[in-house]
């Protein structure tokens, strides 16, 4: 895997720790954008990153808050650095979406190995559409997030559970609260049409759904549940 030119956000309040790590990461051909406090870190979240590294303790608050904002905005890996290493701290970090938890003092080679492994893992996942139950959303491979209605979410939940990404008209009717499919009832087609308009690229060069006449619809892309 090529790691050069990957963008890393690094938010750490201790300059004696941050600056040497930032320098070493740049020597490994990473683009590093750094901040020393939560306020500046939040501002930098408007940029696009492949991975983030957050300290957990700042004068003005907890780095966990940065992690939560980052994970809401991006489906990308995040590493937490901390002087605390209790089981409770690790569980809290993981519960908010941290992909890895390193206790200070760290060994740079270990941090580098973790970064490379996480980038490789997420690169494999990058071709997938991601369905996130926690905020009822769907994120495309370009990291564009679509908020879903509960009905739309249930459609994609069935698609994922069906091994061939197919959803039948009967299944759509059940999601709509109807007993069985009717040949004259077009509500299932209207629902899929609405989803298409929401998530399909404007160019329409890529068909997200294909219709199987009289049977249902097939989602043509790779899709899975979000797993942090």
Structure characteristics:
Arc Repressor Mutant, subunit A; four-stranded mixed beta sheet; 2 domains; alpha/beta; Rossmann fold; 228 residues; 23% strand; 39% helix; 8 helices; five-stranded parallel beta sheet
**In terms of per-residue confidence, which ranges show pLDDT below 50 for 5 or more consecutive residues?**
none
Helix content: 25-40%
Write down the CATH topology of the largest domain.
Rossmann fold
Question: Mind telling me the CATH superfamily name of the largest domain?
Answer: Response regulator
What does this structure look like?
The model has no long low-confidence stretch (mean pLDDT 87). By secondary structure, the chain is α/β, with parallel strands linked by helices. It has helices at 15-27, 38-44, 63-73, 87-95, 108-125, 150-161, 169-175, 187-199; strands spanning 7-11, 31-35, 51-55, 57-58, 61-62, 78-82, 100-103, 129-132, 137-139, 145-147, 166-168, 209-212, 216-219, 223-225. The chain has 2 domains: 7-125, Rossmann fold (3-Layer(aba) Sandwich), CATH 3.40.50; 129-225, Arc Repressor Mutant, subunit A (Orthogonal Bundle), CATH 1.10.10.10. The two termini are 21 Å apart. The strands form 4 sheets. It has a 5-stranded parallel β-sheet with strand order 2-1-3-6-7, with helices on both faces. The chain has a 4-stranded mixed β-sheet with strand order 10-9-8-14, with helices on one face.
Question: What is the secondary structure topology, with strand pairs?
Answer:
Blueprint: E1 7-11, H1 15-27, E2 31-35, H2 38-44, E3 51-55, E4 57-58, E5 61-62, H3 63-73, E6 78-82, H4 87-95, E7 100-103, H5 108-125, E8 129-132, E9 137-139, E10 145-147, H6 150-161, E11 166-168, H7 169-175, H8 187-199, E12 209-212, E13 216-219, E14 223-225
Parallel strand pairs: 1-2, 1-3, 3-6, 6-7, 8-14
Antiparallel strand pairs: 4-5, 8-9, 9-10, 11-13, 12-13
